[in-house]
# Entry
Amino acid sequence: MAEKITPRSEDFSRWYLDVIREAELAENSPVRGCMVIRPYGYELWEGVKAGLDRRFKETGHKNAYFPLFIPMSFIQKENEHVEGFSPELAIVTIGGGKELEEPLVVRPTSETIIGHMYSRWIQSYRDLPVLINQWANVVRWELRTRPFLRTMEFLWQEGHTAHATAEEAMEETLRMLDVYADFAINDAAIPVIKGRKSEREKFAGAVASYTIEAMMGNGWALQAGTSHYLGTNFARAFEITYLDRNNELQYCHTTSWGVSTRMVGAIVMVHGDDQGLRLPPVLAPIQVVIVPIWRKEAERSQVLEVTQQVKTALADAGIRVHLDDREEQTPGFKFNDWEMRGVPLRVEIGPRDVKQQSVVLARRDKPGKEGKEFGVPLTGAATRVKELLREVQKSLLEQATAFRDAHTHYVRSYEEFKEVLNEEGGFLRVHWAGTSEDEARIQEETKATLRCLLLEPPEGEGECFLTGKKTDQVAIFARAY
RNA sequence: CGGGGUGUGGCGCAGACUGGUAGCGCGCAGCGUUUGGGACGCUGAAGUCGGAGGUUCAAGUCCUCUCACCCCGACCA
# Structure
């Protein structure tokens, strides 16, 4: 049978597109730059949503919904914000067959309209903080798109909070960055680096932007989530004010933070291998697939009876299980098919197993025989499956961490920087005291960008690899999506 | 927006230079044999050859125009 997935080593970008197509996560749409998220891909996104939403609720946030359309004038109220977004806005100028008096912007993000509402809702310090999140779609007119990583329309959540003081707002900004990191590491099994964006890379309108950066399987970086401290920029633009205890009018300090369907792309690119997807059990739509095997008609009913029992036992144990009883496919085909779709664990049940009252378990994170366990007693199967799911989750995180660490290099000079980047790629860890112009030059010459400045670098003081100046600031540079 | 490429059953492609009744693989449907790592046989359905115009007795093939998509570079969750 023809190979449907290009090997990763041959062409990573092609591999990524192949996996997304073959695993039926998403497909290109008739509209250029947009994608259709198919049920399996959407279930994965629902897993991401569930993990994040739970954490948002636990940290005191409520969900709400704001409109898709934003008056043009709102976007124009905050200077940097307009400049940052105007090239990528989709604008509605005709409605109901008539030219609109004021064009409506299809939201690229909702700071402005939410700011407008906050100015009405917030009067007193007693109204603060306001902690709201919304799940929504947004549109940015991108020229160069890639499924999940960058599409013209994408799904995300955007949190928007308002606080009395800068300290509180900053605390919130960093708290949500921690929430993102916790989700990425524990649910998505993606090791991420928390850091601050440089002036050049920060969000348009923010005072400071923070990021979680992940390394993809080709050594490139991906910003998997961002959290912004907006200072009083939007409060001033939208007059979000409150009276403090001394009856004095003050501007609120606001934050915003977002994670998008890009996270799905990250999961694909961090864990996937030449066989296809490898999904972390916490997020996998199907955690366990059962494949029945038989030769003769007599064996069929016996085998199916046992697979049905196991399915029930696993479902009762709270495991997302699927029984693949298709008769038109051979077991071998099913093995490959479900591996390609990234199901973490497979249960094989054939006549031999029925006789011994046992099952065969195969884990996705380890190839072939190495990942198989034979003769697992039927009675203890659910317990063993649960253990293995935990192990697979842990193992995926370990593998990704080991990969990232193996491809992260501390460099001391620009020469070394270029050499390592060319020969190995990956993350370049440097002491950094350069300017935005230096950053631009590095990008031009090497295509690497400053991904983030580490929050608490363990290195201590050193010399900037570019300028030689003493600094305790440590940065990660990398090629990025 | 600059550079490169491709449009032919659902998908991947051949056919084009040299014009002469549209073909292959996969997939799909039916039947039978199969089933512990991507099964096989037989039968069958399915294509205005991206679009428009032109040359010609005759155009998937030659000419002109046009549209769309993909890939590589400048901006971005």
In short: Chain A has three domains: 12-271, 288-388, 408-478. The longest strand of chain A covers residues 153-163. The two ends of chain A are 33 Å apart (CA to CA). The domain at 408-478 of chain A is CATH 3.30.110.30 (Translation Initiation Factor IF3).
